[in-house]
Records
---
Amino acid sequence: MKKLIALAAAALLLAGCGASDTAGDQTLRISAAASLTDVIGELEPVFSESHPDTELIINYGSSTKLRAQIEQGAPFDLFLSASSEDIGKAVQAGYIDEDTVVPFAENRLVLVSADRVDGSVGDVLRSADGNIAVGQPDSVPLGAYTKESLAAAGLWDPLDGRLVYGKDARQVLTYAESGNADFGVIYRSDAVISDKVNVVGELPPGGTPIVYPAGMAEQAENPDGARDFLQLLTGDQGRQIIADYGFALPGGGK
């Protein structure tokens, strides 16, 4: 009798482990740059229609902070980054499968304001009064791109004391929309979705192209789901949504 009870207990334990594994396979965890919020929002119902039993958990933030979370053990299956540098570091540290890394979008920087402002970006930044919202250059890819662009144009140091720093791309947009900052340097894709800011002009490119790469976790709990979402993102439907939201396609495509 004791042997039968032990066998039954072992069977229940194995059944419990199997149920847990199956449940885990029904969750897809994606860490995504904040500037991709609307693109992912469009793709979620499309993916869910073909994967009705999969729960999507999306963690948005700046790519650098998302990478730090991954390095600290945060679970994820797919990383959608606004920074080639951050995904490269995740690959080097063994968190991303290098063979799965693929660029899926590009972006540009624009100067915006809640008011209509005439003049070139350089002239406006040199002469206009008021604060300018930018991303944190040390922890937000948008901020690093902004600093690189403005420094190359000789504008970064003269703006010292007028900069307001945001924790991610969407916070910078919010500062500009609300008037908490008179101007903001944001991605072109964020300017496209906002009806509260006006584009003054495009910033000159810095030395680092603004490329968005994706990569699957080296130890993904749901590799099939991650692979399917990545195929959706890089396929015809995903590319159309990416373009609709103001991003450029890899290689300068529209």
---
Amino acid sequence: MAFKSAHDPHLASALNERFRGHAERDFTIWAEQHAYATAGDIPADATKAWIGRQKLNYRGIGARQALRHLISGNVDQAFLEEIGALANLERLELEWPMVAKDLSPLLRLEKLTFLTIDSPRHIADFDLLLRLPALRTLIITDAKKMASLDWLAEAHHLEVIGIEGSMYSPYTLPSLKPLAGLRSLQALLGVSTKLADDSLTALAACPDLVFLGIARVAPQADFERLQRLKPDLVCDWFRPEMWATLKPPR
């Protein structure tokens, strides 16, 4: 992938939107056209739906086999079991909070290419998600029980990885070393994060990496080192003006 200017601030914003899939998920449009109070309200031929769990309002959603893109919040285990029956689902966004304790129902979603999970408070082991054959984008937010990124060391099929904290609870990444050499990785997303070892060097070994949308997790010198190693990589922290009025990270 080639860019006219890797250090254009507008490019970083555009890539962030693209890799997060925001262009296909305008909430104003979704609220007007795809939001439903109950699963029974979803037309049988609907390809998109947005429904948050309220009591048992999700019951029957597993029969909506035309769905390709689902946004759901407050998903518990019973709701997740129904979601697992949506054999044609390609994109799934599990919004805050995700209270289910077992992710295994998702393994039935063999066409799923895009998955986001916000605040999976009961989940510590995410390895099984890598068994989803079509998955290319995986973004996990505020996973308080995730100990490290070691489980991603063989995720060579993923094109977008997001491991992020929340506004009031930054997630500390022990190290980026498990990501070194991931063959398909195009974007790493990590807002509201810290980095325990202050080293970005492992990312230089990701051949297809084009966008780094991460917090100020390392000293300026380390961002500069990565920029020298990957001059076409797009990252806001490669621009000197971003550092002009900032104190060094703790």
---
Amino acid sequence: MASRRRTLLKVIILGDSGVGKTSLMNQYVNKKFSPQYKATIGADFLTKEVQSDDRLFTLQIWDTAGQERFQSLGVAFYRGADCCVLVYDVNVQKSFDNLNNWREEFLIQASPSDPENFPFVVLGNKVDVDGGNSRVVSEKKARAWCASKGNIPYFETSAKDGINVEEAFEVIAKNALKNEEEEIYLPDTIDVGNTSQPRASGCDC
């Protein structure tokens, strides 16, 4: 009975509002896409059972609000993450420029034990828009940024058409699993309130 252990892997999706974070998550978990846009308030998550090397684990994917007024709500959800997915819209330069801010903010708030080697994956979403004629961020530029941050895996995706979504999340799951195996402890459940000691605002402890 003890031989079969189910592992919970926590994945956080970050990026500007409107880049398609919720749509990517829904396409991966439910194989559905909705053209209706509704901003995420706070954070929400979906789970998916995944098998790797005869081992069953649950991917818990957290979709966080991209709007600044809700970002403070996301801090507690960053803790205990096993992988962070950074998403931008290839048709919006600002969403790409903000990737660094999202990455830095995550590392500050999540406080991973080994920030230099914490697994990130970058998704350039909405490659389907206008047949690719509207894009302003080239694949070359995005890959160069990923290389400069320690060779972060990069995928160009379309949540609408399902392009590269499955492939991207396979890599996300593998990176999350690898990170989880390096952790010293394995909590049975994610308890947001108890994953770490509370820190005072501005405390660098």
---
Amino acid sequence: MSTQQKQIHLAAHFPGVNNTTVWSDPEAGSHIAFDSFARFARTAERARFDFLFLAEGLRLREQGGRIYDLDVVGRPDTFTVLAALAAVTDRIGLAGTINSTFNEPYEVARQFASLDHLSAGRAAWNVVTSWDAFTGENFRRGGFLEQGDRYTRAEQFLRTAQELFDSWRGDEVAADRSTGRFLTGPGAGAFRHEDEHFAIEGRFNVPRSPQGRPVVFQAGDSDDGREFAARSADAIFSRHAELAAGQAFYRDVKGRLARYGRAPEELLILPAATFVLGDTDDEAQDAAREVRRAQVSGQTAIKLLEQVWNRDLSAYDPEGPLPDVDPDPGEHTLARGRASVRMVRDPLAVAREYRELAAAEHLSIRDLVIRTSARQTFIGSPATVADAIDAYVQADASDGFILVPHVTPGGLDAFADTVVPLLQERGVFRTEYAGTTLRDHLGLPPRP
């Protein structure tokens, strides 16, 4: 076995209710009951995954003034779920998305430091921003920031939180961890920070946690987002799951690290990936087609097309041809809520492309939406999927994947039972955890 083989990083995303999830599948369970989260986390830990990831939804999506049909369950609070999962798992990392636009550094730092203590060093923070005034209506700080400003706030938010984490030094703490009593030096927890967004001063009341700081993830794909990740993140979530695009993204982001004095291995690149398994490749392809049609019902197809057309298309037959009217290129008001809205810069051009594709392949509205919306990343037998994942990582298109099953909570089981053992046999994925913290799992240097 070549010593040059990269080790693959795998994580699992609990997706909630969206157009990836087949919530109508008989095997699908609750997306809010704790038993679902616990089963999912235990499966990922049994498979020796690096971490479990929870996204964040701060407002239900709306379309045409109504709650979007795939989002009616909403999302429970990320910190609450991760803290509960810390009690029923031992090693798997616990990563959560927390918004830097609508929160405050002291509050978030305190929550993550607490989670890192409760989990014995398994906490991770996906730092995101939001421009969405619709979501911002839930908060005092509505959607008032331009893109450049929101990344400035995010960087200052993260820097402020890190100052709070670092306000406790090891030599200032003599701890009896069985009682939680701490004897501290005169400067322990003291902080003062002032910039254009924050002016805070006081003492941080959670002593330094096992990782020192939580692992920091970032998900932006813009140039600002990539630069933010190169400066500040330990891992970046990528949208590029195709080989050539993945390699280009990998080269670009890794190439930015040197200017900040960082080595390539200090930032992991992890695309989201879906999968459909079968006993044979043909069986998996048949199953994948069924999954896509279950993900995109006729009603969902109309809703997704409305996000491009910016018009009410409810009168159209989803099994019929595309609308004969053009999109409304005005300000997007039909669909509200960032997670549900495609960022379509030129809807008229997109409509032309869609019409040409539909005419060439004789596609209905539903067929077209299935054809053009998110596709499965890995389809095949366990051996085929293991081959594809390994080839992608060894080709420097990523450092691993965040897997998004289409059924929760049991959709990860088959992957854990069939694909993971094949990767372990190749020597590219761990058979046991080598350390106890998430930084250990990811091969990241410890924080001082």
